[in-house]
Design a protein that fits this description.
Structural class: alpha/beta
Number of domains: 3
CATH class of the largest domain: Alpha Beta
CATH architecture of the largest domain: Alpha-Beta Barrel
Number of strands: 13
Shape: globular
Helix content: 40-55%
């Protein structure tokens, strides 16, 4: 693929001359440029990629569209968890490396966490992926254990969403799709829809209140929020079922839970529930051995809904978060393709093991034709699966096949990352140009579950629909907001670049 790249020092004069070079790249495939992009900004970005400080400064306030793969429980800052533990007067068990209310093991007190920097530092290492080179656990084990370790210190959903929104606004993210559970199903499956609607309206009021109270640096920035219902693959099944595990009993149990969340998605669609996802590590025993049963249960329930209701049953399923280090070969041969054909996934979370699919090129063609996006989470893939650097990651495999790709955070608190850093990784690992990052930002809104018609023709962000009024479509309106945000960003960056002349 043709690309424009220039290393070394660039003066403003050189940047201006680069405009004419960049004008010639319009013949590159549609996914590599957006019309109207500032050549000065695009050329400066090539310089910024050579220096981490310049790159982060550039990307920090660049509009980023949406974060479509975000687990709020893993997105909480570790410092917030520590503050909550202090408020609850929890102990930190040094043997289990976990917050507890009581223990017979050696422990740190809330006072230790307040006033002893080194003890606080030790706790942060136990609950996040930083300093992994010092850990005895591998990244995979350390990551998933972190949730158990900080569980008792989890703040309220309201506090988590408020923190997430403030962070999103500061980094110029305009839409969030947050994966969370809004209900614990009783054994009889009954749900108090009235209470749930009030709960979701309360969360939307919290969103409006948080955005209204942003400080002057971020005031006026809008962040829309949708919720993705979570469904555990089965690691939380009742103890009785664990003792005498039977696949037919498990399928019946799992199928009922699938129906429950699908009913919720349809009935609460207008209250912010826009999708469904599956939880639990894909290499766990139940994920590995019962995957086919899980897809069958999803397929059977999905087919029981009317065509009209199926439009509200958007599934964004974790699939292919596997490598040969953590999975047997056979488990990776059709994981993603089956998640699409039987799991009816509109988006794929992670998709790392696509290279092991029996018909990988057919899979790529199918995803491209149907517009099934893959949610790329670089930091979590690096920390959990050890896929570091661009040489091993399948991003290019998807990108060059024109499969829709979006950049996401996954669990930014545990990973000690954020969407700015994810874009920085993408830019340096895969040598992406500014126009390509811009395209990724538009991808994130295009393939979000925001309702309404797209502002663009067939996912080509150089072809706007002239007959569509953005005001009539929430998705088109958000795309127009993103377009205008980029115009302002590039105008401001052109002024900032003069500082380096």
């Amino acid at each position: 693929m043709a690309r424009y790249s220039k290393r070394g020092k660039l003066t403003v004069a050189a940047l201006l001359s680069a405009v004419f070079i960049l004008a010639d790249i319009s013949s590159v495939r549609a996914g590599s440029v957006t019309d109207g992009t500032s050549g000065i900004v695009a050329a400066y970005f090539e310089k910024a990629k050579t220096n981490e400080a310049l790159l982060i400064a550039f990307l920090h306030k660049m509009p980023k569209g949406a974060d479509l793969h975000n687990h709020p429980s893993g997105a909480v800052e570790i410092e917030t968890l520590i503050d909550t533990a202090i408020e609850k007067d929890l102990l930190f068990d040094l043997k289990e490396r976990a917050f507890v209310s009581d223990t017979a093991n050696p422990f740190y007190t809330s006072m230790d966490l307040r006033f002893d920097f080194w003890k606080k530092d030790e706790v942060m290492d136990a609950l996040s992926m930083r300093n992994m080179e010092k850990e005895k656990e591998n990244g995979h084990t350390h990551f998933f254990r972190a949730f158990e370790r900080f569980g008792p210190a989890m703040p309220s959903v309201e506090k988590i969403i408020e923190e997430t929104l403030r962070r999103a606004a500061s980094q110029r993210i305009s839409h969030m799709e947050l994966m969370l559970s809004v209900v614990e199903f009783p054994e009889d499956g009954t749900v108090d829809y009235g209470a749930l609607k009030k709960r979701l309206l309360h969360l939307d009021e919290l969103r409006e209140r948080t955005l209204a109270n942003l400080d002057e640096r971020d005031k006026g920035w809008n962040v829309d929020v949708s919720y993705i219902l979570t469904l555990n693959r089965g690691e939380d099944i009742p103890v009785e079922m664990r003792k005498a595990f039977d696949t037919s009993a498990y399928k019946k149990y799992f199928s009922q839970r699938v129906k429950n969340v699908m009913d919720l998605s349809v009935n609460l669609h207008d209250y912010g529930i826009k999708g469904i996802t599956l939880l639990a590590p894909e290499d766990s025993w139940i994920s590995r051995t019962c995957f086919d049963l899980q897809m069958e249960a999803i397929d059977e329930n999905w087919r029981s809904f009317s065509e009209e209701d199926r439009d509200k049953l958007k599934l964004t399923l974790h699939s292919g978060e596997l490598t040969i280090e953590f999975s047997p070969y056979d488990a990776m041969r059709n994981r993603i393709s089956k998640t699409i054909s039987e799991g009816h996934a509109s988006r794929i979370g992670h998709g790392v093991d696509a290279i092991w699919e029996d018909d990988v090129y057919g899979l790529l063609g199918n995803m491209r034709e149907k517009g099934i996006a893959v949610e790329i989470c670089l930091s979590s893939g690096e920390g959990i699966l050890g896929i570091s650097g661009g040489a091993r990651h399948p991003f290019r495999f998807y990108w060059d096949a024109r499969v829709p790709v979006v950049i996401c955070t996954d669990d930014e608190g545990i990973s000690r990352s954020n969407l700015t850093l994810e874009y920085a990784k993408a830019a340096t690992w895969f040598d992406l140009r500014y126009e390509e990052l811009k395209w990724l930002a538009f991808n994130s809104v295009e393939y979000s579950f925001l309702p309404g018609e797209s502002l663009f023709v067939d996912g080509d962000f150089n072809r706007r629909k002239t007959s569509l009024s953005p005001a009539k479509s929430p998705k088109a309106l958000k795309q127009m907001e993103l377009w205008e945000a980029f115009l302002k960003f590039e105008s401001r960056m052109e002024r900032n670049i003069k500082l380096f002349d």
